[in-house]
Amino acid sequence: PTALMAGKKGLIMGLANERSLAWGIAKLAARHGAELAFTYQGEALGKRVQPLAESLGSSIVLPCDVTDDASMDGVFEKLEAEWGQLDFLVHAIGFSDKNELRGRYVDTSAENFRMTMDISCYSFTALSRRAAPLMKDGGSLVTLTYYGAERVMPHYNVMGVAKAALEASVRYLAADLGKDGIRVNAISAGPIKTLAASGIGDFRYILKWNEYNSPLRRNSTIEDVGGAALYLMSELGAGVTGEVLHVDCGYHVVGMKAVDAPDI
Ligand code: NAD
């Protein structure tokens, strides 16, 4: 352990299980001395999140559904009462109807468009507004995005549009909150097999494609994501805000299939 995150208190939102990107971040933050609180969505996930949180020494584990304003208010009231301040927040939340994470983007329904935008994009703004007053010594807000925001990826569809809006909101939030010493950044993670990713059509093909064509010739891991988050949440990232940091084994710099890539 190092003192990198010693004395820092952070809220981790979006942990579902030990495959979650949020888990990679939580493990590293705890290992480097941070004190953590967690939220979970729904009782079924609560049963999984509780023991994971306890294994990192966390005693604050709260329900939160980002489609419910009162539930978000409740989380920050509780943190104000328990901690009185907050140093970082991790937003690792996204959702879309899996029937629309295949086929054509043009067929996206209005209802799922609104829900995807609300849960996957607006919730970061709604949570940032609630977290900022608790970040009395400044702070760091981190969200998770994907390259499908920048380029068309098969099946990513409405989620790509929501991630593009999320990345734009990172820049606007950074501009709004910078004068309070609050930094706002996104990590653009490469594809990783998680519960959320299993809803995306042909995900195994996408994983193989990235493994064969990324400069590092492997897929990124939740530990890679944790390392980047640690940089953004600690003093190491003190001068960094409004940034979208790619943690994708370099995939975003590639323009074509690698000459040595095997057929999939
Ligand atoms: P995951 O399934 O482990 O986590 C997704 C989380 O979102 C779950 O904990 C779920 O409970 C939560 N969530 C969904 N709807 C919610 C709501 N209404 N209220 C509160 N929480 C809600 O999957 P993950 O892949 O770790 O996803 C975390 C983030 O990382 C997402 O934003 C995802 O888009 C992003 N991301 C994932 C990948 C990947 O390949 N897995 C790549 C880049 C970015």
TrEMBL record:
This protein's name: Enoyl-[acyl-carrier-protein] reductase [NADH]
Residue sites binding NAD(+) per the record: G14, Q41, D65, V66, I93, K163, I192, K193, T194, L195, A196
GO BP annotation list: fatty acid biosynthetic process
Keyword Coiled coil part of the UniProt annotation: no
Family annotation (PANTHER family): ENOYL-[ACYL-CARRIER-PROTEIN] REDUCTASE, ENOYL-[ACYL-CARRIER-PROTEIN] REDUCTASE [NADH], CHLOROPLASTIC
InterPro entries recorded: Enoyl-ACP_Rdtase_NADH (IPR014358), NAD(P)-bd_dom_sf (IPR036291), SDR_fam (IPR002347)
Lineage of the organism: Bacteria, Pseudomonadati, Pseudomonadota, Alphaproteobacteria, Sneathiellales
Substrates-to-products reaction catalysed: a 2,3-saturated acyl-[ACP] + NAD(+) = a (2E)-enoyl-[ACP] + NADH + H(+)
Family: Belongs to the short-chain dehydrogenases/reductases (SDR) family. FabI subfamily.
Listed pathway(s): Lipid metabolism; fatty acid biosynthesis
An example molecular function term from Gene Ontology annotations: enoyl-[acyl-carrier-protein] reductase (NADH) activity
UniProt KW keywords: Fatty acid biosynthesis, Fatty acid metabolism, Lipid biosynthesis, Lipid metabolism, NAD, Oxidoreductase
Catalytic residues of the enzyme: Y146 (proton acceptor), Y156 (proton acceptor)
Tree of life domain: Bacteria
Record-annotated membrane-spanning stretches: none
EC number: 1.3.1.9
First-level EC class: oxidoreductase
